[in-house]
Write a structure and sequence with these properties.
This protein is mainly β. 0% of the residues lie in helices and 48% in strands.
Length: 248
């Protein structure tokens, strides 16, 4: 508070000037998500920083990224799942950089940050790939379950362009949605990863990401020959292909 005295028409007067100090946005950490209380302002000017260091308006992010932005009384509430597209794990914390503009035009930025929980491996869905963070086990213990239900070592499928890297606390496995053993079931990309665990036996995790509503599953393509025809179908299990009927 600032008190200012001045003289007007021979009389001494005073005025008290006070500005409310902007508080740091509050963050609420929950079991599967985190929420931040941002100053009241245009929802269209709330941005997140992507893995490629680009700013993207939350409203323009794909639905599968699982961001939720609403106005609540005198604040904006942004909620992100720990599985949201651009949430990173840094020093055992889930981190998402957020940029915003208040109703008075003041710009600000803050990191949404919550401690990472241990437990089931987390899967991240991106535009054309998915990533899973696995416990740190010997690399040769990481295997994939193929279309026939058999487990195969990752190093035996070099032509599939799988990426397996070692992090500080985890193994990081990334696969394209178009990789060899990724299947499409119920409008989801699915791949099962089998890995060794500290306990006896082995463990597995199902990598699963939704097919975008705007994304077209590869369309059918028919090639006609002199004595027959071939149909190119989306990747999947041969057992799921059936002939319904044929008309002449």
């Amino acid at each position: 508070m600032l008190t200012v005295q001045y003289v007007m028409s021979g009389m001494t007067k005073s005025v008290h000037a006070q500005c409310r100090q902007l508080q740091k946005p509050r963050i609420h950490c929950r079991a599967f998500s985190m929420t931040i209380e941002l100053p009241h302002g245009p929802l269209g000017k709330v941005f997140i920083k992507t893995q490629l260091n680009q700013l993207v308006a939350v409203r323009d992010a794909p639905k599968y990224c699982r961001y939720h932005l609403v106005r609540d009384r005198e604040m904006n509430l942004l909620t992100a799942s720990y599985l949201s597209c651009d949430v990173k794990t840094v020093n055992y914390n889930y981190v998402l950089p957020v940029f915003y503009t208040s109703a008075f035009g003041k710009q600000g930025s803050v990191n949404m940050e919550c401690p990472a929980m241990t437990g089931k491996p987390r899967v991240l869905c991106r535009r054309s790939s998915m990533t899973v963070y696995l416990p740190k086990v010997p690399l040769e213990q990481i295997r994939l379950r193929n279309h026939h239900g058999k487990t195969v070592p990752i190093h035996a499928a070099k032509h599939c362009h799988y990426i397996l890297m070692e992090g500080n606390r985890h193994l990081i496995f990334t696969t394209s949605f178009k990789a060899c053993d990724v299947q499409i079931k119920n409008r989801h990309y699915i791949l099962t990863v089998v890995y060794g665990s500290d306990a006896k036996g082995e463990a597995s995790v199902e990598m699963k990401c939704p097919v975008e509503e705007t994304e077209n599953i590869p369309s059918q393509a028919v090639t006609c020959g002199k004595s027959g025809m071939s149909v190119l179908l989306p990747k999947g299990s041969p057992e799921d292909v059936k002939i319904i009927g044929m008309c002449l």
